[in-house]
Amino acid sequence: xxxxxxxxxFIMSDDHASHAMSCYNSRINQTPNLDRIANEGMRFDNCFxxxxxxxxSRAVILTGTYNHINGVTTLATHLDGRQLxxxxxxxxxxxxxxxxxxxxxxxxxxxxxxxxxxxxxxPGQGLYHNPEMIEMGEEKVYQGYVTDIITDLCLDWLxxxxxxxxxxxxxxxxxxHRAWEPDEKHAHMYENEDIPEPExxxxxxxxxxxxxxxxxxxxxxxxxxxxxxxxxxEGLSPEEDKKWKYQRYIKDYLRCVASIDDNVGRxxxxxxxxxxxxxxxxxxxxxxxxxxxxxxWYDKRFMxxxxxxxxxxxxxxxxxxxxxxxxxxxxxxDFAPTFLDYAGIDVPETFQxxxxxxxxxxxxxxxxxxxMYYRYWMHLTHHHVYAxxxxxxxxxxxxxYYADGLNQKGSIEDTKEPEWELFDLEKDPYELNSVYDNPExxxxxxxxxxxxxxxxxxxxxxxxxxxxx
Length: 469
Ligand SMILES: [Ca+2]
Description:
alpha/beta, Arylsulfatase, C-terminal domain, 2 domains, ten-stranded mixed sheet, four-stranded antiparallel sheet, 16 strands, globular, binds calcium ion
């Protein structure tokens, strides 16, 4: 084995949308420490998840396979840890490996983390304050704020590591997941200001399939007292009420993000102090995007842009030109092959993505993906979002709401009539007008359906029984 193998510091948060990061030109907050990673490395503007929900995205990242292969289609399907994962390969190759923070892929027996020399994870979603954690199978309660605690545990592990061997550390935050509970230090940020509302805040869900209107994740209607940390003042008009709720929601969300930013700063400072910066690949991403009042919503699940898009910034001074921006399409299936590539470990043939290392060197390989396949399986559960699949290219997005639970654990068996949507992302970047039935797009629809079925076959998924034409 080569002696100069890089360390991997894989930072992931939960539900952090890229439009709440200043390196992605956020209009609503500043993230100076996350920006350090982007400014000293590369920012990806078209990184997408293949199923926009927590556990499924995490399973894709670990196994390098789509959810119909790894079995984690919904939140109720836990990971079978007997599968091949990239941490196992790192461990076998002599890396020191650790998983600290949010796991959310099940606990006990075959569901505990595997491939790690050390793991210490939150049970399920975990708590923001004084969280219980499971350290190598043993439950412990920690005093303090979860984002600080996870960072402290990562720093402790790094300080105690064997400095003669490289490390792969998964530093995975719970924040800024619902119910967005900030710590005392950030509780008063934004107190005397109004956060701008997104362009689609007043969306009325017209000109689309029925799924958008049917979803139950509206800021004005579906947030509860826990989300809002109180109830709106009496006597507000419906518009004022919605605006009030948005401010409560977004400020707490951004306060949780601010704590992540501070803590990532501590981590980057540690790498600097220890002389580890040059030989450590630092990645910051989130398991999916999130609606920050966009379309009047919170939450994710939909194949719409705000939810589909993952932040992805990466720094590696030895290979990546500082301040670079890439617009090629990359997916969460590509993460594992990329990490393995850098570590000099062969990527197993069963992994379905590709290493993005050429992109990081400024070269887009011939035939690089220009379309992606998406599938949300968890029909109706929690937020009444219809099960759907679809294809996105750089210009278009075709979505098929097959709206069937298909007996997936964690889905609800209440089948709806299937519907299609097509968006021209150049003309309609906010996806407000489906042009599926517009005759001018008939050829595009045909091409995209062919591409959808091609991708479905390529990744070995099955077409829905009513999707025939
Ligand atoms: Ca998530």
